[in-house]
């Protein structure tokens, strides 16, 4: 009897202590893996998870991480705050069609590929704050048809084209080095005419030029002819990068610019330039060879002297049969003397008196023959 009375007294407290089934199911769908020193997205998570928090780890969101994330297709919230993400690749969240909140703040993101957000049709909140983003291609926001909040504060964005986000309600842009030139005209006009709210409008200030630093981007007075001007975006961006960015940030922004231009079609002028360079080099090489190595044309211009063979002597004798005196002189000498005589005949010099002086002929022998 006493037991029944005690059970009756404690029954209301037992109802309060029992867990709610609905609350239990929500808890089971949430996974908190913050500050675990993970370098990869864990693969042992329940596939029915809906809220996944991987903040304060060392995840880079590489190909392996992307492949693992695709298996958690029921995710509605994903938090990757303060990790080591530097690039958002194409289709990084392609299979997360139920995702509504994506927070990747306080990473080192400098490059966002055009198809990074493909498949996020239900995404409502996107947080890219405190990264190293320099430029944003507004086409990357096209798949985000239901986006309501876009947070871009604390990056290196100097200009921003109007995004095609028809359901956007709140945008956060402070903490960027805004260039309040004519390039800001379209963004300013969009902020004034659309229903989008610019959060922290009073601190979303101009960084350039110096004379407009006291204005925010929504109320800065721009020139009346800005709508008809076509500013040069490349020159302005490079100017801002050199002045306001550190060396590491500038390198990342330069990589972002080259990625967009490296796939551009090459012209045919390079072929003509290569031909001209090759022609100049070949001509210079031939001139150098002609000046520094004159042996080849010395051989052509000089006469190659050599001793006549015996059969050549006989042939030469036959050609001079009409001159008996010269024939008798040649026949009177030995073959070796004859060879020397014929060598000297090739290099004789005509003197002013018309006579040929040959030092190889012995004058005593001539006197004896006479």
Automatic annotation (TrEMBL):
Give the signal peptide, or none.
1-24
Taken from the UniProt entry, a GO cellular component term is: plasma membrane
Matching SUPFAM superfamilies:
L domain-like
Q: Name one GO biological process term.
A: regulation of inflammatory response
Which ranges of the sequence are coiled-coil? none
- In its keyword annotation, does this UniProt entry include Repeat? yes
List the InterPro entries: Cys-rich_flank_reg_C, Leu-rich_rpt, Leu-rich_rpt_typical-subtyp, LRR_dom_sf
Alphabetically list the UniProt keywords. Answer: Glycoprotein, Leucine-rich repeat, Membrane, Repeat, Signal, Transmembrane, Transmembrane helix
Superkingdom of the organism of origin: Eukaryota
LRRCT domain spans which residues?
Answer: 176-227
Q: Name one GO molecular function term.
A: signaling receptor activity
Ranges that cross the membrane:
270-291
Its predominant location is membrane
Where is it located?
Membrane
How is this protein situated with respect to the membrane? Single-pass type I membrane protein
Q: Name one Pfam family in it.
A: LRR_8
Job description of the protein: Pathogen-recognition receptor which mediates the activation of TRAF2- and TRAF6 NF-kappa-B signaling pathways and induces the expression of pro-inflammatory cytokines. In kidney, prevents infection by uropathogenic bacteria by inducing the production of cytokines, chemokines and antimicrobial substances. In gut, involved in host-microbiota interactions, plays a critical role in promoting the recruitment of immune cells and intestinal inflammation.
PANTHER family from the UniProt entry: LEUCINE-RICH REPEAT-CONTAINING PROTEIN 19, LEUCINE-RICH REPEAT-CONTAINING PROTEIN 19 LRRC19 FAMILY MEMBER
Q: How does it assemble?
A: Interacts with TRAF2 and TRAF6.
Q: What is this protein called?
A: Leucine-rich repeat-containing protein 19
Which source organism does the UniProt entry give? Otolemur garnettii (Small-eared galago)
